[in-house]
Amino acid sequence: MMIFSDGQFPVTKDFFLAGANGDREVECFPDEFEVALNVVCLQIGSKYILIDTGFGETAGQESGHLLTHLNQSGIHRHMIDYVVLSHSHLDHTGGLVKNEKPAFPNAVHIMSKKEWLYSEQTPDSREFKVINKVLPLLILIEEDTEIVPGVWLKHTPGHTPGHLTVEVRTNHGVYLITNDVFNIPHSIFNTSLRVVLEEDPVQGIRTRNQLIQSACEKQVFIHSCHFPYPGLGMIENKNSRYQWKPIDVYHDSLDI
Ligand SMILES: [Zn+2]
């Protein structure tokens, strides 16, 4: 498992930390701040599996660095065998296209059918336009699916209807790549926190609570793409309060 930074991007507190309900820790956040964008690439045997694509050419200079960082690690975009799209938002799909063509032309692209139907409702959106450019490479899944041995795509709805979490079962333990289930580390404590455009906040809270409880009980490693780099850690229960315990690594990319 390798974790690459796509960069960062600015958000407002009103947008990124809705649902705070008087949470004092959230009140201390500035009105505007920067959010990290970390992308996981799995190497399983000879196969490379990229989970989301960052902003690509669709955002400012602070982001869109995924391809550069992949190259620096010797992974050319033509070597990617699978691209998993956790959901349709542009910070996860913008990098699908390079120079108007699929950026990962040899990869099977996979997303949830529910997510496809959701993004189809806004045909003029930039998200839908980039996904459309990889249509010949795209497979839609209707249920939880094992794409290669030990790598499962599991539906975790709320943020969007077809949001996917990737579960990786290894000899060293289970890793959950949770994408946009959580947006900041404090979300592990306050599961009401969500981005303002969360599609179904009630389902979002349900998904977050289920995932936290099960990950804590089973001592699962969690990756969360918008947490400070590398976004890898575990959930611990201290004094009946769930909290984030990061694994500290200080490199541009991380090998596990
Ligand atoms: Zn996101």
Going by CATH, the homologous superfamily would be: Ribonuclease Z/Hydroxyacylglutathione hydrolase-like
What binds here, in terms of ligands, is:
zinc ion
| Mean model confidence by pLDDT | 94
> Which word captures the global form?
globular
**CATH fold title:** Metallo-beta-lactamase, Chain A
Low-confidence stretches: none
* Assembly context of the chains: single chain
- The secondary structure category is alpha+beta
The CATH architecture category equals 4-Layer Sandwich
Number of domains: 1
Find the count of extended strands (DSSP E, 2+ residues).
Answer: 16
Radius of gyration: 17 Å
Which strand-content bin applies to the residues?
A: 25-35%
The termini sit apart by 5 Å
Strand order of the largest sheet: 8-7-4-3-2-1-16
User: According to CATH, what is the class?
Assistant: Alpha Beta
What features would you describe in this structure?
- The protein has 256 residues and is α+β, with helices and mostly antiparallel strands.
- The protein has one domain: Ribonuclease Z/Hydroxyacylglutathione hydrolase-like (Metallo-beta-lactamase, Chain A).
- The chain has helices at residues 13-16, 24-27, 66-72, 90-93, 113-120, 126-132, 201-218, and strands at residues 2-12, 32-44, 47-51, 82-84, 97-98, 101-102, 108-112, 138-141, 145-148, 151-155, 164-170, 173-177, 221-223, 232-238, 241-246, 253-255.
- The longest helix is centred in the last third of the chain and has 18 residues, at 201-218.
- The mean pLDDT is 94.
- It binds zinc ion (ZN).
- Zinc ion is lined by residues 89, 91-92, 180, 226.
